[in-house]
Design goal:
Elements (H helix, E strand, L loop, with lengths): L14 H10 L2 H9 E3 L5 E3 L18 E5 L5 E4 L6 H8 L5 E4 L4 E4 L4 E2 L3 H15 L5 H12 L1 E2 L2 E2 L3 H14 L18 H12 L1 H8 L5 H7 L6 H12 L10 H10 L11 H16 L15 H6 L1 E9 L5 E8 L2 E4 L7 H5 L7 E2 H8 L3 E2 L6 E3 L4 E3 L1 E9 L3 E7 L1 E4 L4 E4 L4 E2 L3 E3 L5 H9 L16 E12 L4 E9 L2 E6 L2 E5 L1 H5 L3 E8 H10 L20
Parallel strand pairs: 12-18, 13-21
Antiparallel strand pairs: 1-2, 3-4, 3-5, 5-6, 6-7, 8-9, 10-11, 10-17, 14-17, 15-16, 18-27, 19-20, 22-23, 23-24, 23-27, 24-25, 25-26
Helix pairs in contact: 2-4, 7-12, 9-10, 10-11
Length: 552
């Protein structure tokens, strides 16, 4: 175990939450705990009345998002920024700033306009969550819970970590199918669903999982040899140890969040962030630390840090002069591929038939990405052959495929001329198995020049082009306020990771989801990871690890 570090602390609660607890203690949490109800799908919500649909105490409306005041238990609605009775209540009543999101059972401060995290509140909800899951279990567990009920704090049951682990372990033994090792929920620390969704992907990406679980980054050795007091890979290593320890209780990545804030100060806020930006920021921070080592640089100059070994690819850009045919070729590194959704598959046939809705698909987006594009008049190419600026065609292709292929679907549009932003909600079809050969530079160039081209420098024919999907990050809701959820594919079974809640889902649910980030891994690595990942019931030992082979 790594020695404790005084630098790492849970993020401090907001001033208004601290004032509330100082004045009222944990009394409000006791009421919230009594209202908690665990759904059959594993989510904990608030049940404030026998009616299925709550109503606002001010307008009696039943639409929008609902919040419950911790002081007076009033139920308030939030339809839009212009119609926000919850905000009006917090502004008109002194000390009523902290409310609870009824649907998600999470604290929200309407003065800070932000979700807030409190370990005491989280413990109260989790205790009731375990109770809800344990109602139908055997008499032994029920009697144990009854004993636990007698040990109370001011906010409810006092289930220590040992008892919580035991109950989760027995629940897993009773479940129809055992979750794979490492499948563990992540607590929302205040609008951090964007972080949790990406962390679930990285925790189960075979190259990263193999790297950290095989102790390739030893945090104890790193802190002895490095002068840096904060090391993001060390915190990632700590998180891997916790998630793959066998403990099934939701994990709070507070230390990691604090460390990431120190490395990315522009993201140091409890406000909702973009999951794609967080993903790129994570890889950059890992590269900044791991890429400094001389061992991380190959003779050809390629970085061998785990971020680049897993996600690094190379794009090829060909710009061809429309006058003489001269082609200028450049190569650009990439950690993901961003694809346009708004115009993919908009063929002339589909546009002519207004009654038929164009079907968006990943293949259509990739076809659009690699399709020749005529550059505008303000983007004319200076042709070295013609010695002047000429009209040109630009075509993108993939020069080098990574081990893990990330597709970013551009669902958020920003128009500087109209000064407005919007989200594209259209559904997109995507395959679980994907062959990237048609989009390689070798295939694109051969298609362009036909049989006149038989081979060229650095042919990619020896690279595996078959990929299997293993994770999908989805975004639901509006542009200003939405929610991120991750679907993980482990041993050909899909699991929904919604912050602290993990549930098993059918593949139809995943296909119908609104994908935002899609992660594919090379087919060989996916099948190898399926063989290596244990699917045994969770062990109570905190130091259980399963080595993952197959890459890195």
């Amino acid at each position: 175990m790594c020695p404790s570090n005084n630098l790492y602390k849970n993020p401090k609660p907001c001033k208004h939450l601290a004032d509330y607890k100082l004045k009222n203690g944990l009394c409000g949490y006791s009421l919230i705990q009594e209202c908690c109800r665990t759904t059959p799908y594993g989510r904990t919500t608030l049940e404030i009345s026998k009616l299925e649909i709550p109503r606002c105490s001010i307008c009696s409306g039943c639409h929008g998002r609902f919040y419950m005041c911790l002081i007076c238990s009033s139920v308030l609605c939030c339809l839009s920024p212009e119609s926000n009775h919850a905000l009006l209540h917090s502004q008109s009543q002194n000390g009523h700033e902290i409310l609870v999101d009824i649907e998600r059972a999470e604290l929200y401060c309407f003065v800070c306009c932000d979700q807030v995290y409190d370990p005491d509140f989280d413990k109260a909800v989790m205790c009731k969550h375990i109770m809800g899951f344990s109602r139908n279990e055997n008499e032994g567990v029920e009697s144990e819970l009854r004993l636990s009920k007698r040990r109370r704090l001011s906010f409810g049951m006092d289930l220590d970590s040992k008892n919580m682990k035991r109950l989760f372990f027995r629940r897993d033994q009773k479940s129809k199918s055992c979750f794979p090792l490492g499948l563990r929920g992540l607590n929302n620390l205040g609008n951090t669903c964007f972080m949790n969704s990406v962390l679930q992907v990285l925790l189960h990406a075979p190259p990263l999982r193999n790297y950290f679980l095989s102790d390739r980054h030893n945090r104890e050795v790193c802190r002895k040899m490095s002068s840096d007091r904060l090391c993001l890979p060390c915190d990632i290593d700590l998180m891997f140890s916790a998630v793959f320890s066998g403990d099934r209780t939701p994990y709070s990545p507070a230390k990691f969040l604090y460390s990431w804030w120190q490395h990315s100060e522009n993201f140091a806020t409890y406000e909702q962030q973009d999951a794609h930006e967080f993903f790129i920021s994570m890889l950059d921070r890992i590269h900044d630390k791991e890429g400094k080592s001389s061992l991380a640089i190959k003779d050809n100059g390629d970085c061998q840090c785990i971020a680049h070994r897993a996600f690094y690819g190379l794009l090829r850009s060909d710009v061809t002069c429309a006058s003489c045919g001269f082609t200028s070729t450049t190569h650009d590194p990439c950690m993901d591929i961003s694809l346009d959704l708004s115009t993919c598959n908009s063929s002339p046939k589909n546009l002519a038939d207004k009654s038929s809705k164009p079907k968006e698909s990943l293949g259509g987006c990739l076809d659009l990405f690699t399709r020749p594009e005529k550059l505008g008049s303000d983007q004319k190419l200076y042709c070295e052959n013609c010695q002047e600026k000429q009209d040109a065609l630009k075509q993108m292709s993939i020069k080098k495929l990574p081990l893990v292929l990330c597709f970013h679907i551009k669902r958020f549009e920003h128009s500087p001329t109209r000064k407005m932003s919007r989200k594209i909600d259209r559904h997109m079809q995507f395959p679980f198995s994907l062959d990237m050969k048609p989009y390689l530079a070798s295939s694109i160039v051969r298609k362009r020049y036909g049989n006149r081209i038989f081979s060229f420098d650095s042919d990619e024919s020896d690279i595996s082009t078959e990929f299997e999907i293993f994770a999908v990050v989805t975004h639901s809701g509006m542009l200003e306020s939405g929610h991120y959820v991750t679907y993980l594919r482990l041993r050909n079974q899909w699991y929904k990771c919604d912050d602290a809640w993990i549930t098993e889902v059918d593949e139809e649910v995943v296909r119908a989801s609104q994908c935002y980030l899609m992660y594919y891994v090379q087919k060989m690595l996916y099948h190898k990871s399926c063989e290596d990942v244990s699917c045994q019931p969770m062990s109570l030992r905190a130091d259980t690890f399963v080595p993952i082979a197959g890459c890195c």
